[in-house]
Amino acid sequence: MSATEKKDLQLVKVFIRERPWTKSENDLKRICTIQKIQPTQISLKCGNMEKNYTFDRVFDKTASQEEVYEIVVSPLIRYVLSGYTCSVFAYGQTGTGKTYTMIGQDAALNIEFANDPSVGMVPRAAADLFAELATLQVEYNMLISFVEIYNEEVRDLLVSDSVPLRVFDDPDNKGSTCIKGLTEVLVHSISELYDFLNKGAAERQIASTNLNRLSSRSHTIFTIVLNIREMTTFDEETIKIGKFHLIDLAGSENIGRSGATEMRAREAGSINKSLLTLGKVIKALALKKQHVPYRESKLTRILQDSLGGTSKTSMIATFASTVDAFDETVSTLEYAHMAKNVANCPTVNIN
Ligand code: ADP
Predict the structure, then answer these.
(1) With a 6 A CB cut-off, is 97 part of the ligand 1 pocket?
(2) How many whole angstroms from 39 Cα to the centroid of ligand 1?
(3) Which CATH superfamily is domain 3-344 in?
(4) Backbone angles phi, psi at 28, to 5 degrees
């Protein structure tokens, strides 16, 4: 296979991000498993085991939200404005910074703290879109939706006590799906968007408390749909539709290891099903297979029209560099490596 052919197989841009150590990790003087880190390479070592990986970018624990945004998310804004679909996934073990990266620190989820350095990718992307749209001086409307997938059930995070929603094939658009009864709200300002983001984050928390489940076991999809009205030189009206999915995936850890109860084991099965199917879909698309198994999980069904084709997809895989997390870190980086370039990754079998 030629270098160009191999490059074509990179369907997903893959970035990895190290979480800073907590105070207790620092106090315990844990041994760091990172041996060497470079802008696109990382070398891990634990005992006799050594692993080396190459990614589109490696962010160490000093990287700021702004830096991650500028490199990973900001380049996608112009595609959304041009009517393309873009997706950014956060993948990794629970507690490694997926929600921090995508949404930000809880306290900063308020318009008063919109300039706080801890603000995550979702509010930054929305603020950027509003700013760009203001300079373009076009007519547009921005719709947002926020859903959670838990145990293969889809819930609306923009309404209280959502019932599970049904995903069905879009009769008007082959290859796309719709979610029956999904709330899509029109937002006119970043401040309104913060209100809905807050509401959704709170609903996720309430649902996990009421239903006795861990929020880290659910996937969330925050979607921005942008309808931009333009006039052609012949005074005809055209509508461009850009879509941006920002996805905080459930924790990728194998909870079987920590002694799962029946309920936890069921959750783990559903999480793994979605994450494994996502891997299979990426692999099938990159290898240009005829059959892409979108239908095997709710996550990939909902994102069916946003993976492959002209869509742009990026993944941020988060990890912790302590010895305790080494096995999970390796499995995160193996998954991320597979997503980056399936052709070069014979060690991971996701079939
Ligand atoms: P996950 O969503 O992967 O379960 P969280 O985003 O909840 O993990 O992060 C776990 C903890 O680590 C949180 O207290 C979060 O604020 C903190 N954290 C994660 N990444 C960073 C970071 N890059 N900088 C500062 N704190 C972080």
Answers:
(1) yes
(2) 21
(3) Kinesin motor domain (3.40.850.10)
(4) -75, 0
